[in-house]
Amino acid sequence: MGSMLRIAIVSANILLALFIFQNGFLLKRQEISATSSCSDAHAQPGETCWMSQQYNRTILILVDALRYDFLIPLDKPKSSESPEWFYQGQMKEVGKLIKSGKASIGTLLADPPTTTLQRLKALTTGTLPTFIDAGDNFSPDAAVNEDSFIYQAAQLGKNVTLFGDDTWLSLFPNKFSKSAAYDSFDINDLNSVDDKIAPKLEEEVKYSESSSIIIAHFLGVDHCGHKFGPSHPVMADTLRKMDRIISKTVESMKPTDLLIVIGDHGMTSTGDHGGESDNEIRAGILVHSKKHEIQLPKTSIHQIDIVPTISLLMGLPIPFSNLGTVIVEMFQRDLWEMAVGMNYEQVKRFAETYASQKNFGELHSHTARDSNTMEEQIKTMSRIQTLLRVAWTQFDDAYINVGLFSLIEAVFFLITNEEMSAGWIIYRTGCALLQAALLTDKTDSDGSARTMILMALAVSCLSSTISLAHRALRISLNSIVSARVIGKKKE
Ligand SMILES: *[C@@H]1O[C@H](CO)[C@@H](O)[C@H](O)[C@H]1NC(C)=O
Ligand SMILES: *[C@@H]1O[C@H](CO)[C@@H](O)[C@H](O)[C@H]1NC(C)=O
Description:
It is a multi-pass membrane protein. Belongs to the PIGG/PIGN/PIGO family. PIGO subfamily. The protein is an alpha/beta fold. It has 2 domains: 2-23 and 396-490; 34-393, Alkaline Phosphatase, subunit A, CATH 3.40.720.10. The chain has helices at residues 2-25, 68-71, 92-99, 116-125, 149-155, 167-171, 192-207, 220-228, 233-252, 278-281, 306-313, 336-357, 364-367, 374-393, 397-416, 422-440, 448-490, and strands at residues 57-63, 103-109, 159-165, 178-182, 211-218, 257-262, 282-289, 301-302. It has an 8-stranded mixed β-sheet with strand order 4-3-5-1-6-7-2-8, sandwiched between helices. It is elongated, with a radius of gyration of 29 Å.
């Protein structure tokens, strides 16, 4: 009976210690399921929803692993020995578009982990990643529960067409009015998906008017990276093929269409991705429209900034949990203030909701004061984004320490093999309750629960040490005594 109780209590202690420990490691972003609606913002005069639709269609070409430097129209390196030979300056048609000023390119910064599933979520919801999700890359039913521009488009009765990777269908079940999606897990198969979707994209762009958003996800560059790395003749072929697809799309586009070509992440010099090195987080972006000449900013754009930009340009509400900032350069000058204002109100709405629903009081200092000028609003959004990025991606040392110390203490307690007295039961139960309290009250902002646990644990460790020392002393005394006894017997 006593030993059962002992095992039960110590097991509880160890389990709680492990939970506390993991709490320090896992990223803690919690999803908010609220969605934006047309009535959330004061609509532009004469509009029923936030802002008037600027383009009839947005064509979003997602080139998996399109690193920023693949797009830059540099001259080919002099020597075929150089590693850049196979990927620099391969996209000739794109180069012509850029040089003639018809298209503009920039750098799109992805948040790590740079895995495709995480990037697709960020690119549609405007949120930052959670670490637990990194394992979900292969889980079949990873439907996006948060608000996204795809949900918003479907909600407003606008058609969204998808060509490409079937991951999209599991992320957004029943949200696409038309789709041609294929399995993408065979990285040895470089071309079959791309070859199937390229003619479909061309046909859709040329002849169909029914979709407001067309998404085409090409996989060849990523698969080639995984198989051969970027410095390989096959990469040159694949990039030239993407170049043809992009220039064909540009030719087929109507004057009221907007083309956005982006990479979801980059790749290392060996063709891998997932981490946070410069080459992995720097993806490329290209925009083109016949209606307006767009000049992207020279500074890096955050990947999630795509989300509010596409939303407002297409006359949709910005997704509720978005943290991105509109790329004003993609709007006409007279719309900048309005776009930023709507974006600011939305980010503020999200921050206030997150602060109150998830006990994250630090956000209030940023939402309490109203920012009135465009510059201030952009700064406030960026501060909120930074605060949450840091909070969601930092390891929490306090939790890790308490968890580790709790674990050591429990093990220490086990090896002392002390009798379970009533006092000990009360003490250990108390410890477990304190640990549980620390787990449920995640904020513990003044750290009182942590301090109390650490003090209690220290006392217990001290007591275990004394008891161990006591036992060791007793054993050695006993052996001395028995040695004497044996010695005496021999005499
Ligand atoms: C764009 O959409 C409007 C309204 O739906 C339509 O009248 C117009 O013809 C479209 N323009 C083009 C070029 O498709
Ligand atoms: C959406 O697509 C369907 C058929 O695919 C079409 O009947 C409908 O008119 C489209 N809706 C819009 C808003 O274009």
